[in-house]
Amino acid sequence: MSITAGSRPDRTRPPAAAEEPAPAVDTAAAKGRARAPRGTGGAGKVPWRIRLRRDRTLILMTLPVIALLLLFNYVPLLGNVVAFQDYDPYVSSNGITAIFHSPWAGVEQFSRMVDDPLFWSATKNTLVLFALQLVLFFPIPIALALLINSVVRPRVRAVAQAIMYLPHFFSWVLVVTVFQQVFGGAGIIAQTLQDHGWSGFDLMTNADLFKYLVTAQAVWKDAGWGIIVFLAALAAVSTDLYEAAAMDGAGRWRRMWHVTLPALRPVIALLLVLRVGDALSVGFEQFLLQRDAVGLGASEVLDTYVWNMGIQNGDFSYAAAVGLAKGLIGVCLVLGANKFAHLLGERGVYKK
């Protein structure tokens, strides 16, 4: 039907279908596929030769660290073979070649360790001190980190953080000396009590309170390091979560319970796993410096026991057996604690 000028078009004819827009092309993915090197199957994986050439500067920077780890951490592990020998360092001209000339003893050293009451006494002291440090020492950095994080002024926060972190750089000799000047028989507290008619105060020689004394020393020295870790975790918490909780009517304590602590839970789980794995290493120099004041019954732990047996008594095979057993138990504790962290929904040291 022709349409003349002034006539209306036929409205019964359906309008022309609109053209559908062309599907969007993911240009980033297309470029990635285009740039993928040959031989990678299109998956975008870079061959190891290209990665080696690309990251050669970073690899060169890590080589000294790897060399130090191999030299001081992994090569000495080969010396654990003396735990299965009757090792005599004088059977040869030097101690290294004496390993190849010492007779094998099998598990004799481990049987001796099980029957040794001094070993079990040192193990008991170690576990008691670990339990005390886990209960008394571990929550203190968390509480101090929350306290410092609540300070509004950044300058005050930085000064408090520096003061608490400073004892971490002190040696155990200095730490024990400071405690001796405060809690010793000639310390500040003893002199003050003596001026008021009280005498006989000497916390540094009290064997019954020694476990609490060394825990207080560890808290004073190393709590600042834990504060740094938890403050770094708190800095990653979004302020939007606190604002949303405040708009919902949550007060300070409820915001801390529902926002802050859940944000710290992965870090707490990781540090707890590492602490449990280090349960049998409660310290060496700290106890060695104070054992004469309280006696071996209160201050002997596994680290000092290994030192006494190996260095002082020259029983290297037995000391190596005790150290090897301690290391294996530590590995089992790490694996068990990490499995427990997985059950709680946390990553731990490694994923499942």
Kindly describe this structure.
It is a single chain. With 352 residues, the chain is mostly helical. It has 17 helices and no strands. Helix 13 (252-277) runs antiparallel to helix 17 (316-343). Mean pLDDT is 82; it is low at 1-20 and 24-42.
* Tally of individual helices: 17
Biggest sheet character = none
Task: Compute the average pLDDT.
Answer: 82
How large a portion of the residues is in β-strands, by DSSP E? under 5%
Using the CA coordinates, give the radius of gyration: 33 Å
**How far apart lie the N and C ends?**
76 Å
Q: Please provide the ordered H/E string of secondary-structure elements.
A: HHHHHHHHHHHHHHHHH
The helix-and-strand class reads mainly alpha
Q: Shape from CA axes?
A: globular
Count of strand segments: 0
